[in-house]
Structures are given as C-alpha cells and as structure tokens.
Amino acid sequence: MQAGKPILYSYFRSSCSWRVRIALALKSIDYETIPINLIKDGGQQFSEEFQKLNPMKQVPALKIDGTTIGQSLAIIEYLEETRPTPRLLPQDPKKRAHVRMISDLIASGIQPLQNLSVLKEVGQENQLTWAQEAINFGFNALEHILQTTAGKYCVGNEVSMADLCLVPQVANAERFKVDLTPYPTISRINKSLLALEAFQVSHPCRQPDTPPELRA
Amino acid sequence: MQAGKPILYSYFRSSCSWRVRIALALKSIDYETIPINLIKDGGQQFSEEFQKLNPMKQVPALKIDGTTIGQSLAIIEYLEETRPTPRLLPQDPKKRAHVRMISDLIASGIQPLQNLSVLKEVGQENQLTWAQEAINFGFNALEHILQTTAGKYCVGNEVSMADLCLVPQVANAERFKVDLTPYPTISRINKSLLALEAFQVSHPCRQPDTPPELRA
Fold first, then answer.
1. Hey, what domains does chain B have and what are their CATH numbers?
2. pLDDT 10s digits, A35-86
3. Which residues belong to any copy of the GST N-terminal domain (chains A, B) (predicted)?
4. Would you call A77 and B70 a contact, using CB atoms and an 8 Å cutoff?
5. How many beta carbons lie within 10 A of that of residue A81, not counting itself?
C-alpha cells in the first residue's frame, strides 16, 4: 500500500464532489483530481474500471491511506477523524447532532431526489418541476431549522460539515431556477460562505475538468 | 429542560424509524414511543404540532437530553457519542469509514428513492418498478462492497450502524417483491442479524402502533 497523495474522483458539477473538495481545501490536504465525466461516453462512472473503485457508480470517491471511500459524508467524517484540524464538527454532542441532522437533510432528503440519474427517469418535460419541488420541500424545513441553529453559519459561528452541504445544494437550486426569496437565512449563510477561499477554490467553475465556457 | 425518558416519534413500518429502534434496543435505552401514522388523517407527520418538532415532516425524530434530533443516522451518531456501549462504530478509522459508507449508500442512495412520498409522485402504476429499480441498483453495489468488508456482519464480526440500515432495507426489498437471489451476502447477513434480540423487539410487527392483523 502506497501512501502518496490522495486521489479524488470528481466531476466539476457534482454537488456531492464539491462537498468533499471544500473539506479538502479547509483542511489544506494536497490531492490529485481524476475527473469522471458523468455525461461523456454515456457516463464514465459506468466504466468497468471505475465500478471497481466505487460499485455505486457515483462520484465522489476518495483514494486515501490505502483505501477507497465512497459517499461524500463518509469521506468527510473520515477526514475529520484522521485530519482533525480545523474541525468540521463542533465539540458539543448536541451541536454535532445538529450539524449531522442538517447534513443528512440535504444528503438524504434533497440531493438524491434531484440528481442526474433520477431526473433521467422522470423524463425531460417533468424534470424542472420535480427538482424544484424536492428542493423547495427540503429548503422549507431547512430554513426553519436554521432559525434555531444558525449563527454566522449553519450551526453557530464555525464552518461545519453542514455548510459543506449547504453551498453546493444552493448552487443546484439556482441551476434549477428555484426562487430563493422565501429562504433568507439559507441565502445569508450561503453568501457568507461563498466569500471564504475554501469555497472558492473548490467551486465548479474552477476545476481541472470545468469546460472553458463555464470557467470563472 | 426536563431529562425524563427519551421520546421516539416513530411509525411501525418506517425503515428509518426501525434503524433507530435497533440502536435504542442494542444500547438498552429505555424510551417511550409516540406513533406518527404516515397514512391516517392524510399523514400525521403533516400536523402543525409535529412539524414544530421536525420541519422535515418525517419520522423518526428523537426527543432526548432536552433537544430534538431528526434524521436517523444523525440520531444514531448522537446515541453513539453519548451512550457509547455497546459501540456501533468500530475503533479503526478505515473500518468506521466503511460502516458510514454502507450506511450512507442505503440512507442516501436507496431509501429516499423508494419512500412513500416519492412513490406517490411516481404514480400508482409505476411504483413497483421504480422501487425495484432503486433497490436493485443499490443492492448490486452493496453486494460487491460487502464481499470485501463483511465478516459475520456488514463490517467484520461486530454489529455496526451499517447493519442497522441493512435489515430495514431488506424488509423494504421484500415488501416490493425484489428477488434477493443475486445478493447472497446481503441475505446471509440479514438472516444472522434477524436472529438477534435487538432486531426482533424493534421489528415492525412488534410495535405499539402495529395493526393487529400485522402483529407477530
């Protein structure tokens, strides 16, 4: 087992990949990106080679410390346990529970319902409405929860795993033309986070596989 | 803030509620159940009273130690941090990552695509096929992953959070008439787990809100 640099299998536009890229940036972990294009060649995640790495045929996957981990939150929790500085989970168990509740609300309650493979099943004419409904349902709940947990960020005043889920999900909402005016807390926190360097360097518009016309 | 007994808002048939019931049983935590019937009265999870507790309008939610936590995995991680015995996450960080990867695969990659509210959207004539596709897609991946992580249970020989996700998901698969013969590892582990008392007392057929005709 070689140590070497961690390798992130990523797609510039994947919101789950972006979560992990933010964690890697915040923790100053040097890594290599191998782009997996979810559209090209019918989806490079379906190649035999990639399936051996992640049988779920999804990005992200992180090769690190001699093992390969799939599922963005499992990757972030692993990074937190093995590279604890700066922390992405508060020390207080109740606050940690709030961070994980918000993260899971997005990762299980919103994102899976509006991801590429589900939208394909739903059919082209229904895609936009379907995605908007899923996001609005989740954001309504999230806006309420944040009103009791948030400080400057999702839980208090320190950036946490919940924030790593929030920003990419808001970007998806904008892509699906969701009206964000009913969500002032979500919008405020999103804006504060986008001002931070780790959220900028990890942004879909600045990845090795970002097409030239989408770069910024 | 009163301490008192934890209160679990649960529905007998909800696979996410069952995950938490297994954790509570394994850790011998005494609790009270308040049933939330997801069908009756157009869905009791939509009542104003319940929405205040869990704005996601979903079960489970656990009132404990003066706070309320939604999202089953966030609840289980909280119980693990505050009531660590017996452990539901191994000590080794890589094995912990494997447990979380499997848990997230089920909790984000399978369950949300075949839950009640999505199946309603999909329409009655397509429900069964839709649910079967989602479960088969996830189980194909899971079967491969388990071939490298499993011992007696999902990760090695100790019961972990991954097992708490597996058994309720297999029950859903059976309810949706998924053919389990392509998944011998999943089936073997499921059978071993169902022999354990904590998986039996928490079973949907033995809850306070289980209808008489489904009791066993």
1. 7-86 (3.40.30.10), 93-199 (1.20.1050.10)
2. 999 999 889 999 999 999 999 999 999 999 999 999 999 999 999 999 999 9
3. 4-87
4. no
5. 14
